Each structure stands twice: as C-alpha cells, then as structure tokens.
Amino acid sequence: MYNLKDARAWCELEQLAERHKNDRIIDYFNQQPDRFDRMSKQAAGLFLDYSKNKITAEVLSALLELANNAQLKAKIEQMFSGEKINQTEGRAVLHTALRNRNNKPVLVDGQNIMPLINESLQHIERFSEQVRSGSWLGYTGKPIKNIVNIGIGGSDLGPSMVCDALYDYQHPNLQFLFVSSVDSAQINKALRYLDHRETLFIVSSKSFTTLETQLNAESAKQWFLDACQSADQEISKHFVAVTANLDAAEKFGVARQNIFQLWDWVGGRFSLWSSIGLPIALCIGYQKFVEMLEGAHELDQHFQTVPFEENLPVLLALIGIWHINFQAADSQAVFPYDQPLHILPAFLQQLDMESNGKSVDIHGEKIDYATAPIVWGQTGSNGQHAFFQLMHQGTRFVPVDFIGSLAKDSQNSKHSRALHTNMLAQAEAFMLGSENRLAASHQYCAGNKPSNTILLDSLDPKSLGALIALYEHKIFVQGVIWNINSFDQWGVQLGKKLAVKMVQQNPADHDSSTVGLLKKLNLG
Ligand code: F6P
Hints:
12% strand
C-alpha cells in the first residue's frame, strides 16, 4: 500500500532540507547564471517563474519522484476519464468535462455526458443572449438591468471572482450583485435601491438545501412580491435557478424551463465552468464565457500531456509540498498585483482549504503529515501597507505566489509601471532582505523568503480560465501525493448540522459558554 513517508524520496527530501537549511536563495542565482531561464515555464497564456525558491535540482528531482511514487500520471487519467475518485461520495470528478472543448466522449456510468453539457451550454447561451439583448422582459415589460446572484461557497465565489476580474468586459447596461451571507445586512444593502421590475434573481445552489441560500431566496421572493403587490405568477420572469435539485427549485417557484441543471460529478468549488457560471455569461457574454472555458481546456491539455518537470500545475504543487512538508510552512500567501483579482484569494481559500483540509487518507487512516496550508492574501500594493511588515520582519515562514498580468492598462502606464515595479521589488526584497547585513536589529530584514511569480498574458477570459485551472490541478496533485480525497467536504456538514440543532435542542444540553451566549443573544 502507498505510504507517502515510506517513499525513498521522502527520506531524501528530509535530508536535503536539513543539508540546505542555511542556504541562501540568492547564492543559487550567483552560482547559476541561467537559473531564471531554467526555472521559468509557460503554457496556456501563463508564465511561471519559480526560481526564487530554495530549491535545487536534487530537491526537484526528489519531489518529482514523490509524484511518480503516487502514480500521479494514472490518477490524472482516472480523473479526466470519469472514474469515481471521490470515494466517500461515490462520485466522478468532472469539472474538466465542462470545458472539454474537443467534445471527446466522457462516460459516467456508461453514459456520455457531453450531450448533457452541450445542452446546458446552449441553455446558458440562449438565456444570456435574451437578457443581454433586452429581449427578456420583466412582468411589466421592462428589460432586466440588475442581476442578483444568491448563493454561497462555490455557488458564489467563482462567479463573483470572475465577474470582478473581467469587469472590463461587463455589459454596460447590466449591474451584478452577489448575495451570500445569511446576515440580512448583505441582502438589504443589495436590494435597497433596485427596481424590482428590472431585477432578475439567480438562485444558485447545487443542493438547493443550503440554509443561507434558502433564507436569502425566500427574502428576495418576499421583497419582490411585496413590491409588485400581486400573486406568485409574476416571479417566473424574475427568478431562475441553478441546481442539481430540480424538484426543490420548482417547489420554490422557479419555472422548470428556467432551471439550469447541475450534476453530482461537479463539485461546488469547481463549478464555475457549469451553469453556476451563468452570471459570468450574463456579465461578459456567452462567447467570452466560452473563451474562458477554452483557456482552461488548454491548461487541461498541458496538464495531461507535458512531462512533470515542465508541467505548471505539477511544479506549483511540488513547490508547495516542499514548503509545507519539508520547510514547515503553515500558510500560503497569494498576492495578486492586479486589483480586479481582489476576490481571487478568497476563491482559492475555498478551492484549496475545502479540498485538502483533511487529516485522513483515502482509506480512512489518520495521516501524520501536514496537508492543506492556510491560504490567504490580498491584492498588491495594498498588502504592503497592511501585513508586509510581518512578511519582512516577522517570525513566520510564508511562501508567496505573486500574480500579475502583462498587458495592463497601457494608457495609464504610470500606474502599471508602479504596480509591476512594486511587485518585483517586494519579491526581490523577500529574497534578499536588508542590503546592509549589519543593519541595526530593528531595521534588519532576514530575507531568504521564497516566492513564485505568475504572469498572465493579459487579464482576459482565456488567461483567467487557464489560471483557475492551474490552481485546480495544483490542488489535485497535492491531494494525490498526500493520498487524500480532495473532493468531499464532510467537515462542513458538521457545522451545518450543529447550526440546525442549536435552535432545536434544549439550551441546557449545551456547554455553559454556549448556554450563556444563547441567553445573551436571546436564543436560549
Ligand atoms: O461549503 C460547503 C458547500 O457544500 C460547498 O462545497 C458549496 O460550494 C457550498 O456549500 C454551497 O452548496 P450549494 O451549492 O449546494 O448551496
């Protein structure tokens, strides 16, 4: 049986970590003039520079051996071919089929799912064209101007992140609002100034049972009916649904023909390529949505065909394994130096931490090595004025992914020059530390802090699709090496159950802190 820590490579990596613990990354550059050329790769409109890591050729070779020991090549093929690799839920994992632009058959239980996917894409295309052209009319005959997506987790973060990232492509007559939290402050703020006659709600929920989304959808429906003082029949022109639970959506009041289907072989955090991405197609148009799918598809093909030592997702994953399992990194920072990507860190939090925040392996055995890091981040240059002090002089070891895009607002070149020089300066400062090694201790920056730099050709649908797929596959590779199931999320179900019990159970059944707080909040 596969056991990560029994692998020869694991032992070698532990020895290499010990042997190189006092190395300085800058010395690698001095010894290897071609380091940048050797340790930077590109694919699908992305450029990855991973040379500012404390990684030698020996370390990389041992990391690649870990990947091969984990049968990574076979695992990749199993995922793309529809094997039920999500063992605890008995499901295939096929977000890749959603962007399978060469339409090669993909079988689930013997059925080719590509016709289902193409039919769903046609539904998205028809509907987004109707709304964007103004031919979809509300019950008073007005076209739609406001689109409110109601959903949470993967039914919110993906669409909202992409719509903000691709703001330059947004339809000029449409505004997009995303409601996710159960805190009524969010939906009240969203609806405050909207004209219900021009507003369309998308209720996005794969299960159609998530408490936050149910409550928000009911409040939205009540807001709408109160505003139009008429019976339910009007809701059909102003509410559509995205779900795998068609009966529940119909019971809520969405007309069957306005329900966009989802399937159980698409995980929530991997679902923006499906009809969960409806807000994206409405925002940027169906053709640009397809370009996003094409960018991801190109990265998928790279991932499936390119040797691991040249493979962007594999390299990013292995560098993470080196930091997490051999350099004791507890967190991974993501700093997009591209303001439209301001939701990307939050999106990657769910994608990474909900996938690999696990502590038992695929056989249910407790594991004794670290798995997913705490993913966090903020756009640059703002982060420099918030937490870069800790990054430069704190006691924590935090690997960083810098993300930027080459074609950046050329007409405002002063801004993009300042943005990009800040990004490069910070990456260099993390590596070099203080120039004066004898600086007074309160001024001294130790340096030797690793970072990757990822550059997009431009922040357009195709490159963004490739970037998201890059991280999806990085996380998949790490899950394979850690021998965990990256596609279930049983931990989240516990919180949901306790929230329901909290209001049903006799207060006395709780601990004194919970009882005391229930009373404070008039819940007990
Ligand atoms: O966070 C748990 C989770 O199940 C996520 O995986 C999912 O994206 C989110 O809740 C919302 O679930 P649903 O789309 O079923 O409402």
